[in-house]
Amino acid sequence: MYEKFYGFKDRPFNPVPDPGYLYHSPYHNDALAYLSSEVEKKSNPIVFTGDIGVGKTVLLRTYLKALGPEVNLVQIFYSGNDRVQLLKMILLEMGIESGQNNLDALRSEVKEHLGGLLREGRETFLIIDEAQDLDEDALDEACKLSGLEVDGRHLVRVILAGLPELRGKIYSLSNLDCKNTIAEPYYLKNLPDEDIPKYIRHRLATAGCTDFTVFPEDVLREICHFSRGIPRLINMICDAILLYGYFADKRVVTMSLFKEVINDLFNHGSVEDGYPYETSSLAPAPVSADQDTGSGEEQAPPSDDIHSEEKEEGNGKIRTEELSVQCEDSQQGGLLPMTLFVLEKNARMRVRLEDKCREKGVDTVALSTLEALFETLERSRDLGLHVLVADSSFFFAKGGSEDPAGKDALDRIQSDYAYMPLIVTATLPLTVIRTKLFQRGIPLLLHKPDLNRVDLSEVQVQFDAFFNELQLCLSNIHSQFGAIYQKTIKWLTDSQGVTAASERDMKGSERSNPGGR
Questions:
Q1: Long-range contacts: 409-417, Cβ < 8 Å, 24+?
Q2: Mean pLDDT for the chain overall
Q3: The overall pTM is greater than 0.85
């Protein structure tokens, strides 16, 4: 939206991981050196950890891309303890839909396919993302995969990527099959304060910006404080700042504009009541690039909670607040109402999603066909935020191949309903699907359980885990669109006020000078 206004060729703070935008901080260079060293030492598996939003995914993709086109990348997300499901997911990511349910048969099938790739001169890297969610059996199966060899050569290099607690989980399991070959876990640190302005300017330059004064020094200092050096938060704040600047017709960010962004994104209050700092002099001391927090140790965040969606319970666990989407008078600064459209073929999943969303106070419309979706959208007259949660099978054939009817449906959604955020869900997420969605600018692909295959005792647990991820996505979407909504209402109200004042001045002038002289 704002690229032309600022003279960019691209959105510099796009949330989609893009190796082309990677900033090589000392920490990132150290991480790349670690990966290179462990691959050369034939450590298997490699354990790569970091906090949420620190850039693990983009860094891994950058490293593997540099290895050359002969590398076969397989990336999966799996949370569970089922060896069979883990192996079937890996096969499906490689384009093989196995009908096997026997563990030994699946192991043979995986080994045969990996061996074929190796004979073709292609080395396979398997990234298991969010690996801290794997239970003992699944972790052990991943270790067994890492030990597969032919003539002294690894059939697959396994990378376990996840949050810092992954390290503790691995060390707590004494029976893992790879205790002697596993790499020392690596912890990717947040950016130090002195690198955050360099990170922002690097992304601006990559997007074609030549005038970096758009972010003055005082604003940069505040971004350092509020982002805590987390690249995902930096991107979210900077993207919102540029959008607000576009609305306000300001090509240089002011502190008042920055404060509006922070309050709209995090506090949902007025600038005067919500913004907690006048200057960054109240911020904690900067983190130095030379300061060592210890490999594998999580940095302690500042005490200020900038995430309005997350609160800490007494047991130390993070819970997600219920979505607050009640419609109030928008002219009085109320929240943006939201309607969720659920497009789902599986009746059990459709009913559970509809019930759970309504329990959380979200207006929900559950549908089972594309025809019903488009008919409903055309009839809808709701003046709020529409979000579509759709199963990938409506757009892609089995195995992730293109489906002509699905392609037409996606084209129509992105052209006729471009205002509507889209979250795609899949029981077995495929790398090929993820890539195609990214190319379309659709970054959200969530893994969900197949309720027709999950044991009844596990249905509730697995569904709740999926719904928590979905709820977090919806909360973030609602927060950002709500901020834009409030900003637009304020802009329109201010514009109407200026217009009304001009008309009053004009009428007053006519009364004082009726003859026109």
A1: 409/370, 410/440, 412/374, 413/388, 414/440, 414/441, 416/377, 417/377, 417/386, 417/388
A2: 79
A3: no
